[in-house]
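Figure caption, in words: inputs first, then the predicted bound structure.
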Amino acid sequence: MRTQVGIIGAGPAGLMLSHLLHQEGIESVVLEARSRQYVEERVRAGVLEQGTVDVMVETGVGERLKREGLVHHGIELSFLGRRHRIDLSGLTGGKAITVYAQHEVIKDLIAARLAAGGQILFEVDGVSVHEIQSAAPKIRFRERAGGERELSCDFIAGCDGFHGVSRPSIPEGALTVFDRTYPFAWLGILAEAAPASEELIYTYHERGFALFSMRSPAVTRLYLQCAPDENLANWSDGRIWEELHTRFRTSDGWTPAEGPILQKSIAEMRGFVVEPMQFGRLFLAGDAAHIVPPTGAKGLNLAIADVRVLARAFAEFFKRGRGEKLDSYSATCLRRAWKVQRFSWWMTSMLHRFPGDAGFDQRRQLAELDYVTSSRAAMTSLAENYVGLPMG
Ligand code: APR
Ligand code: PHB
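Bound structure (adenosine-5-diphosphoribose present):
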């Protein structure tokens, strides 16, 4: 098999890259370990920055997003029993976020690629990359039906997430890893209950952080801070609701509406960046290159930002024979990735209870929340990061 860009991974990064390359008339093949059904049902985050929405709409895959996405012009910070609204749109000249589940983005991109004749090979095994420092790198893999295969490419895009094979295929000495694990995790649930508030609520509580979000007018998405090694089996539905009400209840009595819990999961909290994000003709994008704690709702959006840069760089190379944008891919993406890492770290450190805090940290956090909700300058800084820094 042969293509211009071999893409490993059919998550947001890999599928959006394949879609953007197709817009430029550049061929690609996407290799995915899981089944189509699995990736289209995998519950992940659900907040799209303005820039991500713009890319989808401008490149013709935003129709359902425009119909079904929930546009939000603000978020709320809740602490000491009171909720404080951050006017995202008013502070950013009209930008907004859109609540639209990541797996819906995946469905839209897969449908668009297949309708355009794109090649996505699902349920492939044993993917390995070869000769990445040559002008003809290769991807070897096994198809469930077809046996051993080899895909010859001009370039390989490693969009295979944090646990993929791309990053480990780069020689150890060629990469520098920056890694921070946080001393807590998030227990997340999907509940069949109409959201009891219009906008997202990030809640600071002495027992720990809690987040009120949603997926649709009928499904609420809720998270609560838990121990990093939390065992989901210890959390009955009743215990989850009791803890959520304790953390969310405000002095006016508001608390999320209950409903049957459809899904429970534990998400680790980590900050991770690898430098550089490229080696030879292998380019890393999305979670393969960096992980951010979910507090800023940035993971999917940063993956899209990476592949927008990468798609433009490939277009420069294939259509105009120029390699400068490919050479500067990593530096360009890391500039944004570290600013997103900073914002996600800031939101996380402001809103979570850190073990061993003897009280100083708690007072500092409450002062930070008081400042952010009473200073226009501080609110503007939060808002411009939350809706998404300019994509450049
Ligand atoms: N071979 C083929 N496919 C693989 C392999 C492999 N060896 N390893 C992983 N994959 C696939 C996974 O099954 C997954 O579908 O690569 C895809 C990677 O997708 P994501 O993990 O979603 O990563 P990315 O596209 O960078 O999107 C980042 O998704 O995971 C969330 O929190 C993350 O919101 C962020 C966003
Ligand atoms: C979600 O709806 O899943 C969500 C929203 C905001 C976040 C993280 C997750 O910061």
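The longest helix spans residues 329-351.
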